Amino acid sequence: MAVPKSALRKWERVRDFALGMPGAAEEFPWGESVAKVNKKVFVFLGMDDGSYPLGITVKLKDEAAHAHALTAPGAEPAGYGLGKAGWVRVPLEENGAPRAELLCDWVEESYRTIATKKLVAELDGR
C-alpha cells in the first residue's frame, strides 16, 4: 500500500524536526522509528514503508494540547496503557490531518516533557 505523498512529506518534516532537537537520537526498537532524548522516547514515528498507516505518537501533558490532539481525524490515546500517561497517536494519512507545523509543536511539547532542564534551556536559547 503506497503512502500518500503529502502524508510522507509531513512525516519527514516531523522526523527531521524531532531529530534536530538538542540531544535527540533516532533508534529502531521493534523495527519502528523513535526519537529519544536521554535514552527516553519523546516521539514514536512508526514506519514509513507503508506496512502500517503513517502517524506519530507524542506525550502531551498540557491539557489543552492533549485535548486538541485528540480532535485530529482518527487520533486516539496511545495503546499499551500509554494513553493514561498522556500519549496520543495522531494518524497522518486521514483527510484533515494536522499540518506539519502543529505536529512539530506537539513534538516539541513532548520533548520538553522528557528532556532534562539543561537540554530544554539549550532549545530555548536557539
Automatic annotation (TrEMBL):
Short name of any one Pfam family annotated for the protein: YjbR
Entry superkingdom: Bacteria
Protein name, per record: DGTPase
Biological classification of the source: Bacteria, Bacillati, Actinomycetota, Actinomycetes, Kitasatosporales
